[in-house]
Inverse folding.
């Protein structure tokens, strides 16, 4: 008898532990924690850009063009005599803004679509999944490039283009989770009381697939930031004089031989940011609990 | 197996049908009247209303949108992607002309990535949880985080402008390949190395490896004759799937290095508002990508007899 109760306890724990983030494990992962710290630093840059930046990021001083890094201008000045350090700091606002906006929009809509698709099943599921396939039939950046390019460059085009192309990953992930969850005992049990399907989805299914979505979202912020700066680098994204890292890189290309710091520092900032989100996301993924052991009760 | 192939083919045709719709609507993304945008691109700023109207009729833009789509689709079925709105070149001919450069770059980058990733992945799997392992994985995470346009510029600055070892742009000789292929290959290597490591670790934990060791084979034989064969299967198919990544990355790398491939063609046509060329490129790239993943899937089924496709998805 006690044996039986113990087994049920283990099974319960296993269910709860399914795909749960293990924050203790996350805390021990030094790289992941340093990723999180870097993200905090970036947020400080974005929030307090006017206090941190030593100069106005837009003020041009034609007598101090293309200066090398010095104590006055830590990262040097660009082709119009603007302080690169200040521009890079202000650029945090743009890149983090795009990353967070796009991931917020796509994770919510993608999750909703995935829930609907997985829980309803049938023809709706089939239609949604073919839609996902169609968007995913375009190699990563191609579709975003065309959408942003043809809509006309600018902040909202970049966000729209990246949002339209990045939701399928969430839909697929959540649908897979739902398919495995809906057959599970606790969902069957909940269904016995005949609540609305919306209730079951919100109360029982959504909480159990939210954590993989968080992991995906963290890694996606990194992707989105790279893509956004790639669009700007190609000239199809954020346009000068807005201090966006990708467009700063593009502006620096003609001076690559004489003043490589124009391209060096904005690129370093992209890496720094993407690195931070990749590390944090990777750590989160590793701390995701293993799937529950289904054999517990049978054994 | 045949049922799986039939199902997969049906899915691909649905996807390609959807792709035609997406590619066609590219033209209507641009704000404003397409006829006017095209006229602006072709004749410059000072154009008359009659010029726009003539162009509208000549390009069939006066028909309702769905009729235009059906006409476009009809041409497509006869492998006619139309003519460039700017240069009047045949779109398909132009794309096929640029294809070899992109394909060559893709193959070269894939080779470079495998040359880096396989040894790195195998080494870190064999020396799991050592300094070497965490070093390799750190570098690979760094590699994923470096945008390839920045890496490309850095390589140009160092190898072309400072050391004068390789040309910084252009196409033609073997030397022209080095920097673009390195740029594209290293970012791919980062992902492949992680995959190789994970795959080999999984295989090394299996019972047949223990059995092989029990039979007295030395580690080298176990690794090369028993483990790697199975461990490399997902790596090889992954390399096939990366074709799409290479096509996407090619857009940026080709632009930096002025590489005359499809990616650069696409970017140039977007700037020129050359709608039919954009439609053609987008459609062509998506079809190429879909077909390549189809081939990879089928190859995988052939290569790994353990895989059964009786489940949906």
């Amino acid at each position: 008898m006690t044996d039986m109760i113990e087994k049920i306890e283990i099974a319960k724990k296993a269910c709860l532990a399914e795909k749960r983030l293990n924050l203790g494990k996350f805390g021990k992962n030094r790289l992941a924690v340093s990723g999180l710290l870097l993200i905090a630093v970036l947020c400080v840059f974005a929030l307090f850009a006017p206090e941190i930046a030593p100069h106005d990021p837009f003020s041009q001083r034609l007598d101090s063009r293309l200066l090398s890094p010095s104590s006055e201008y830590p990262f040097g000045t660009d082709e119009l005599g603007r302080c690169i350090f200040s521009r890079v700091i202000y650029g945090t606002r743009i890149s983090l803004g795009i990353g967070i906006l796009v991931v917020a929009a796509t994770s919510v809509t993608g999750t909703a679509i995935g829930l609907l698709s997985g829980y309803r099943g049938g023809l709706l599921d089939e239609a949604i999944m073919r839609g996902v396939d169609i968007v995913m039939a375009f190699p990563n950046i191609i579709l975003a490039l065309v959408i942003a390019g043809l809509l006309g460059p600018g902040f909202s085009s970049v966000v729209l283009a990246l949002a339209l192309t990045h939701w399928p990953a969430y839909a697929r992930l959540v649908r897979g989770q739902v398919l495995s969850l809906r057959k599970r005992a606790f969902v069957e049990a909940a269904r016995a009381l005949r609540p609305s399907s919306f209730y079951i989805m919100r109360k029982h299914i959504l909480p159990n697939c939210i954590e993989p979505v968080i992991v995906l979202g963290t890694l996606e912020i990194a992707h989105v930031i790279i893509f956004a700066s790639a669009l700007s680098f190609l000239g199809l994204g954020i346009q000068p004089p807005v201090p966006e890292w990708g467009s700063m890189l593009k502006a620096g290309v003609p001076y690559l031989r004489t003043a490589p710091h124009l391209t060096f520092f904005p690129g370093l900032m992209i890496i720094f940011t993407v690195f931070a989100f990749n590390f944090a996301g990777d750590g989160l993924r590793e701390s995701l609990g293993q799937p529950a052991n289904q054999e517990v009760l049978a054994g | 197996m045949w049922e799986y192939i039939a199902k997969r083919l049906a899915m691909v045709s649905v996807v390609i049908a959807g792709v035609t719709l997406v590619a066609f609507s590219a033209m209507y993304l641009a704000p404003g009247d397409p006829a006017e945008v095209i006229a602006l691109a072709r004749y410059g700023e000072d154009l008359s209303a009659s010029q726009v109207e003539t162009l509208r009729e000549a390009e069939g833009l006066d028909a309702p949108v769905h009729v235009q789509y059906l006409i476009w689709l009809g041409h497509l079925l006869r492998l006619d992607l139309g003519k460039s709105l700017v240069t009047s070149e045949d779109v398909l001919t132009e794309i096929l002309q640029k294809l070899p450069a992109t394909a060559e770059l893709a193959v070269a980058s894939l080779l470079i990535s495998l040359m880096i990733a396989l040894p790195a992945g195998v080494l870190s799997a064999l020396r799991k949880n050592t300094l070497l392992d965490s070093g390799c994985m750190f570098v690979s995470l760094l590699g994923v985080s470096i945008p390839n346009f920045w890496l490309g510029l850095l390589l140009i600055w160092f190898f072309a402008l400072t050391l004068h070892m390789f040309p910084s742009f252009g196409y033609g000789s073997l030397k022209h390949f080095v920097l673009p292929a390195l740029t594209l290959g290293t970012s791919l290597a980062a992902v492949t190395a992680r995959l190789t490591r994970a795959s080999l670790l999984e295989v090394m934990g299996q019972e047949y490896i223990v059995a092989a060791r029990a039979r007295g084979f030395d580690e080298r034989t176990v690794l090369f004759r028993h483990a790697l064969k199975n461990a490399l299967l997902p790596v090889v198919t992954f390399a096939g799937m990366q074709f799409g990544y290479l096509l996407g990355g090619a857009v940026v790398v080709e632009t930096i290095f002025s590489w005359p491939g499809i990616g650069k063609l696409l970017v140039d046509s977007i700037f020129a508002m050359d709608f039919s060329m954009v439609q053609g490129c987008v459609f062509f790239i998506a079809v190429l990508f879909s077909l390549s993943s189809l081939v990879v899937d089928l190859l995988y089924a052939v290569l790994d007899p353990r895989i059964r496709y009786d489940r949906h998805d």
Notes: The interface with chain A takes residues 11, 14-16, 18-19, 22, 26-27, 29-31, 138, 141-142, 144-147, 149-150, 153-154, 156-157, 161, 244-245, 247-249, 251-252, 255, 266-267, 270-271, 273, 278, 282, 285-286, 289-290 of chain B (CB under 8 Å). The mean pLDDT of chain B is 84.
